[in-house]
Amino acid sequence: MSNNMNINFKTNADKIAGSMSKLSNAMDGLGKAGRKSTGDFRSFQKQTRKVNDAFSNMARDGNRSTKVFKGLSLATLSLNKAFGLLLTHRFGAWLRQGITSAMEMIETNELFRVSLGELTTETDNVIRSMSKLTGLDSTNLRDRVANFNLLAKTMGMTAKNSQTLGLNMNQLALDMGAVFNVSYAQVAEDLRSGLVGQSRVLYKYGIDVTNAQLAEEARRRGIQKSVQAMSQAEKMMLRYSVILRQTGTIQGEFAHEFNFPMNQLRLFQERFVTLSRTIGQLFLPALGAIVRVANAVVIALTRVFQMIGKVFGMDISKALEPRDGGAGLGDIKDDVDGINDGVGGTGKGLGKATKEAKKLKNQLMGFDEINILQTETPETPSAGGGGGSGGLGDLGEFDFDLEGYDSLLDMIEDKSQAMADSIMEWMKGVWELAEPTREALSKLWDEGLSKFADFSMGTLKDFYNSFLVPVGKWQLTDGLPRFFNIINDMLNEIDWDRLRTSLDGLFVELGKANIEIGTGILDFMESVLKPLSVWTVGVGLPQFIDIISRFLSDIDWDKIHDALNGLW
């Protein structure tokens, strides 16, 4: 068994030795090929260094690009901040609008109450139901209904008819807005204008409320009274009937187009108004308190400055009062003379206007609506008219005193005045408490500060008289003229021709030097760079490629494969 192991070991060793011998021969061939191409690899190494340098430059350019991107990132952050500030500004504007709308809602509700009177609750129930069903803003509905109702009452219609007109005209505004794609507020305004006789406003909606249509509507209802003899309330009732009759085909279009996109967009805007107004109501209590305090502060400051004016001998409160005929500021006599001259001219102008009006009346007689003929020439107002002696003369049936107006101002209780009184009392206490300080300040002004003021003014006068005046005189009489003369003499004594000749010679030599340098660079390119580039591209690079090809072809890849296979 020991002999067999020796035989096997010897046989395997011989095989390994043979394989190693083959591998050694292959490596010798590889070494020869490697030594043959060493020189070629050295030149290849130089080219590799150049490529490495190019990559280094690329890395530096990449760093510069990174800095640029960082700057772009900072700019993006700044843009985000600006966008955030814009959103904050827009939100502030929307909140301010909501608070304003909430305050206007209070005024609208008061207008609604005053306009509807005893029918306020009944009408408001109708509006609430409409708002809940459609999503329309209840305040806008109250505003439109109240304006229609107030207009009808003003013209002399009954409270019930005024309520009916207000509700129906508001509903018609919704229908016409849906059909003609116009805002509800604009349609309501146009309808109000049409109800008072401005027929052209309604032409764009296909509605005609001229006197001819009113007369036709009156005949249809069996009314014998002429349109010219009707009251404003009677005309408005006829216009209302004409409008409803002519818009019969579009009544109910708001409900029919309720879910149309454009109508839903209007409803979205209405709901958004309701939202902003609701949010604005949350700030009204605080705003009311702040405004009252601000009014009190303004009143107190006004009183303080009036007191300051009295200290300087000025009664500001009286200066703000309107002056009467015997008092005032300035040359009142000249003003009055100018007024008299102007009024005299006005009287002459009125006399001419009266004559022209008489001619125009004679031309229009028989065509005008009322056909009232005057038998007497109206008396021209006197140039010095005033008081009770002026006016239009005999007014006939209209010669009566106008009724008074109950403003209920005695019911006003201004809380700001009470707060201002409290502020003034507090300021009075502070004033009395600061009496030692006031005395010290008065003493400082009368003694120390007055001396300092005299010193400052005296020093300024001395600086002006002792420095500025003599220096200014010297500059104007001697300094500036001498300076300009020196500059002029210097420029005259310079030999400008010689300087020009020298510069011309310098320019000639610089031109020659530039030409020589340019010629040398071109010679270098022609004699060195050109042949070197031609050899590199046409000879060197192909030789390098051929060396690599021969190196790879000289390798006995099969022997290497067999040797490695035996080794494994």
Features:
17 helices, 568 residues, 79% helix, disordered N terminus, mainly alpha
Could you explain how this protein is built, in words?
The protein has 568 residues and is an all-alpha fold. Among the domains are: 191 residues, no CATH class; 57 residues. The longest helix has 79 residues. The N terminus is likely disordered.
| Rg | 53 Å
What percentage of the residues does DSSP assign to strands (E)? under 5%
Question: What is the distance, rounded to the nearest whole angstrom, between the alpha carbons of the first and last residues?
Answer: 27 Å
Unreliably modeled segments? 1-10, 325-340, 342-347, 360-393
Task: Report helical residue fraction.
Answer: over 70%
Which class do the helix and strand fractions yield? mainly alpha
Shape: extended
Order of helices and strands: HHHHHHHHHHHHHHHHH
Helical stretch tally: 17
**Strand elements, count:** 0
Averaged pLDDT, please?
A: 75
The major pleated sheet works out as: none
What does this entry show, briefly?
By secondary structure, the chain is mainly α. Helix content is 79%, strand content 0%. It is built from 17 helices and no strands.
